[in-house]
Amino acid sequence: MDTSYPREDYVPATSRKRDPSPTVITMGSAAVPRDHLIWSVFNTIYMNFCCLGFVALAFSVKARDRKVAGDVEAARHFSSKARCYNVLATVGSLVLPALLVALVITGVLHLSKLAQDSIDFFSYQLSMSDDDD
């Protein structure tokens, strides 16, 4: 037996089971929520239906304040509300004028048809009275 080296330094080549370390995936910093401030200002200036742009502007300012204060969850909540009100304001600003134009065109077409029918009716009556004389 070879005793030229101390036994304490000898590490046997047995496999040791190590505790599995948890897998950590770093995704970077959490995405900062958008405050939609420019969109809200545009909707406020455009003066849309029910002043939804002004409500969106209020929530956008709250979202920006919460983002600056570091409260990301509240900023995300206010940002979501601002986006919803901005969507409603934008849709209202685009759909309501289009609906108004469609109603005006429909009314003009209906009135022109009514006027044409009236002209036809009165011209028929006048031609009938001319034959009686």
TrEMBL record:
Transmembrane found in the keyword field: yes
UniProt KW Transmembrane helix keyword: yes
InterPro entries with a match to the protein in the record: CD225/Dispanin_fam, IFITM_antiviral_protein
GO BP annotations listed: bone mineralization; bone morphogenesis
Keyword terms of this UniProt record: Membrane, Transmembrane, Transmembrane helix
Transmembrane portions of the chain: 37-59, 85-111
Localisation: Membrane
Pfam families documented for this protein: CD225
GO annotations of cellular component type: plasma membrane
UniProt superkingdom: Eukaryota
Protein name: Interferon-induced transmembrane protein 5
